[in-house]
Amino acid sequence: MIQFSKSILLLFLLALAFSACDPTTNERPLGVYDTGILIMNEGSFGANDGEVIHLDPSLGTLTPSVFENANSRPFAGLLEDLVLEENRLYLVANTGKVEVVQPGDFNSIGVVEKDLDQPRSVVTARGKLFISDYGPYDANYNTPSSYVAVVQGLDGGVVKKKIPVSSKPEDLYAFGSYVFVAGSEGNKVEVLDANSELTFKTLDMPGQPVQFFELNGDLWVFCHDDQKVYFVSISKSGLSQQETSTFPIAQATGRIAKGDADTFYVLTSSGWPDYQDGISVVSIGSGTLIPDWKKGTGFYGIGYDPDRQEVYLANAKGFQGNGEVIIYQKSGAEVNKLTVGRGPSGFLFR
Amino acid sequence: MAVHAEVLDRFAAGKTRLTYEKSTLARYSARSLGDLLQEMTPIFVRHYGAGMLASPSFRGTSPGHTAIFWNGIPINSISLGQSDLSILPVKGIDRVEVQLGSAGALFGNEAIGGSVHLSTDLQKQQGFGGDFSQIVGSFGHYQTSFVGSYGKPKLRFQSKVYNQNQSNNFRYRDISRAGAPWELQDHAVFKQRGVLQDVWWRVNSHALTKASFWWNQAQREIQPLIGGSTRDTQADESFRAVIDYRYQKKSAVWKLKAAWVADQLQFNAEENQTSQGLLGLDWELPSAGNWAIRAGARGTWLNAKLSAYTTTEQRWEAYQSLGWQEGKRISVSINLRQLAYLNEIVPFLPGLGLDWQLFENSRTSIHFKTAFGLGLKVPTLNDRYWKPGGNPNLRPEKSQNGELGFQIKQSGTFSWFQRLTYYRMQVDDWILWLPKGTLWTPENIREVHNQGLEYHGESSWTTGHWNWEAHLAYTYSSARDLTQEGTQQLPYSPKHQGNAGLQLKKGYVAFDLSGFYVGPRNIALGNSRILEGFSLVNLGLTYSGAKWKSLQIPLRVQVLNVFNQSYQVLYLRAMPGRSYQLNLTLSL
Known about the structure:
By secondary structure, chain A is mostly beta strands. Chain A contains 3 helices and 28 strands.
């Protein structure tokens, strides 16, 4: 009887131990914003009214002012980028701060609010934050003192070092201890060592590099100049350029969305005197180009929902008030039109 | 010689006017024109912080839709097309007249929402006069000023010198940070100094002349937005000079006006210089029977040298005014103006007004007032020439304004005055700067319909040795953008505004209590963010009994924002809480 009881007890303890190790019971429940689509609203210069809107695409419901509602304070900045890494969501304000929030409920975890000038993006590597920053303007509105700021820890804090980089760094990408920096004005990708916090290598690009992405496990960077766009693949191991796909798309704005497979949607703007905006669609593998997939005015951001296979086009509507998001099927057919906050500029699909 | 009052008095029948003279201006002697207009008139002033840019919005129009004159010359920046009311110190002004509604025919360019007329008036007193005033206030506020005057029957001088410093190190809640901690405002220092000189000379029995000169310099650290860390600086410097010559023979009056205005604005390291020369000639019959007639022409030469462009321009205008008056009963004004710039003749501007006394007895009078006018704004030089983005093909902005109202006046031991005005306005071809790809460029895009009600009441009475004066004003303003879906209210156009005041005087002691309310306003088209309304109360106490020999030593204590309200006029622009001012004057 005692033996039996001991066996039962053992089984019970084992069951308890296993249940305690069961990953499903220990998993953080999904937050409201862990699903759906986060719409970045950059806000208006001089008003600093950037914010995030959440869209539930299945119900079509929009939740405005997500940051302010969660934290009872305004974001108070121009929202430049939204980066999800290491189970944290980073809200980069080009007015000089990076807010760190929990992705599920947007509750604040921390902030980097001092010693930044015009931050553009952020990446995590080796337990640190790397923040690309234009640096201050000089008397001629150039940015000769651009840098990547380093913050120890992932939850915000103080800037411990500024690594000088070429003018106007944009997107960042981390692989192991390498941090790749898209140096847009210098037409180069700089590679930093996340451990030593020094520049490790510089790669010359055919145009202005602005956006990194992964394709079939490889690192690619999107570059553009006045006449063409370039998709350049970079060897992660050899840290060198591999191949380049070039498309004759003039006046690309630097905003792109990766669609299915190797398809990309590229925003263009003709400038003076026609001021015509557009979307061109390219396929890197086949070299296919649809130059005028859409045409219009006020295009300010683009995204692609891989689950629903829909293209999201943000229209800033002149920053006079609420902007607009138009959702298209891949075929180009319009699905829906949403009124969103001021200066919609990008999307994060959860 | 009052320069603009004459035009307003004779040819502005039916229009809504507000006048502020020395007694009111004295209460604002350490403050700016922006503070006065916000607290006393139906105008909404967009304050970008303490001592920072303050721009007026009349009847829901934009800051550039307000013409501002000093001694009859337009002083709006020709590159920006507007004025910063923060750097127009009340200390330098002897009289402020505000006219509401489009009056392009009477005042020319930019009088779409209304116009503000600042003037310096020389005292008629003989001999020497003057005062020295020192003001000390909260948040590092110091102002020293000197006014000296000398008068003879044929010659008068007035000199003013002022120097003002505001550290603006007030405490505010940083609502961008967790817990909204109290912070000390940093980088908002305001410094201003200036010199004014007026000379009045009666040349002979037919002719007199007045010359005025104003140099003003302001240096500012631009207050960053809450949560921001910008470190911009701005320096403004203006030279304004005007000479008026008036010659009267029999009933005809000739008026010659020559003026020069030069503005320099340095924003960080960027320098912008503009100047304008003006020459005008008027012929007038002030009273030919029931008629008053005026005709004139004016040429303006503009010169701009900015970091983004350099240009010159000439403008020509001809105008005519007719006034007809039958005693105090009926007064009619007809104004006409034609303006041309570059090689373009812009639309002809007519204006019409009527004052009609419906009833009068020994104590009471009732007037009906109505006016109709067009307004126009030539696109600013920045709009047309800024590189990159300037649009040389812009058309002038145009407005139509109609208003009607009643005013009742009652005199006696309890005298009062009440006026209610309804206005309706339409502004077409409103210019907006819009992003086009990576570039911003202006377009004639907006069409706006405005309408509203303006109530103004004042009264005065005596109880024993106490003299009381009170005023109350309320404005309802709808300004709807017809070019947007749902015709939305324009940003920063409060629908509701009001102000009230009470002055109490007994012997040498005077007490004043005033307050104003600004209603909720959206910060952009649509209602995505609405700033709460706010109301502020100010208190003042003046003792004018202190004397030493012939020297009078009035003393004034003032408390602004008595209830220490935390408020923003514009989103994320911190404003100071309660502050104190002590004003000591030595007056001859």
